[in-house]
Amino acid sequence: MAVGYGMTAVDFLATVDRFPNPDDKVRSSSLKVEGGGNAGNALTCAARLGLKPKLISKIADDAHGFAILKELEADGVDTNFIVAARLDASTIYPECTGCHAFKISKYQLCNCDFG
């Protein structure tokens, strides 16, 4: 058995011809919407390897949150310890430097190493 605690998310994966510069507008040729987040991804892998993983996490009580729940269950992850709650929208997007910036409501944080 594997138990994980952490983030689950929805990933919007757009295919573009080039990585846009700041303030550029580029058209995508395709868009996929899939479950993501470190804990969700890791335990999905564990389930696909034959383990019986359990995930402790929180999802939004909206269409995206319930889509995450459905996808995890379909992959064999035990979701009995996931709580659905009213959450503020959050977005994670790649910066030009290759790090990830986290924007939660009007506040922005970044896990980049600026050293």
TrEMBL record:
InterPro entries: Ketohexokinase-related, PfkB_dom, Ribokinase-like. Signal peptide: none annotated. Residues 5-83 form the Carbohydrate kinase PfkB domain. PANTHER family: PFKB FAMILY CARBOHYDRATE KINASE, PHOSPHOTRANSFERASE SYSTEM TRANSPORT PROTEIN. This is Carbohydrate kinase PfkB domain-containing protein. It comes from Vigna mungo (Black gram).
